[in-house]
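Entry 14. Ran structure prediction on the chain below.
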Amino acid sequence: MPTRAENQKNRRSALVKVASELFLARGYEGISIDEVIALTGGTKTNVYTLFGGKAELFAAVVDEQCQKLKHLFADLDLSGLSPEEALRRVGRAYLTTLLSKASVRQHRLMVAESGRFPALGRRWFKAGPEGARTALASKLEGLPGFGSKAQTRQIATAFLNMLGGEPLMRQLAAGGTPPSTREINSYVDDAVTLLLQGALASKKR
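Output, structure tokens:
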């Protein structure tokens, strides 16, 4: 029989899952706690006990979304790969996740709501974009060809900035179908080529 702590954990996960779908689809003002409860069951007391209110539930949704990129890098196996192969593997996984419909909706949501919740906006940036760079730098550290810890951090930052620029802005502004695998591979190939001819190549001089 599940313990009280396990029941609370499961309840919390269910609330975050449903709230995430609603917030990403309709924005912060577009939903109410009553709607979340209607889809998950229970009472408002559950939400206030586990989160404190709607704003804190929104923060929990943001945190949950940000963790996905960190786990993405942690789960990648880069052992035995050359710098070029490692960056291509990382880039394809990252860009596929970044340009997914859920990710694009999250970016739109944070741009729209960061004025209302500036502290949450900073928290999202630290856990999301900045957290992704830190997670990638940690993943690349120690692999052959990436240099010192500081150099690896620069490489990770430059690489993710290259990948997350025009493709993400295009999705945010124009929407539509996410890029195909062929288009994603082309973006990644271009970024890897530029990086190898710049940051990594300069280390050999």
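The first helix runs from residue 4 to 26. Will compare against last week's run tomorrow.
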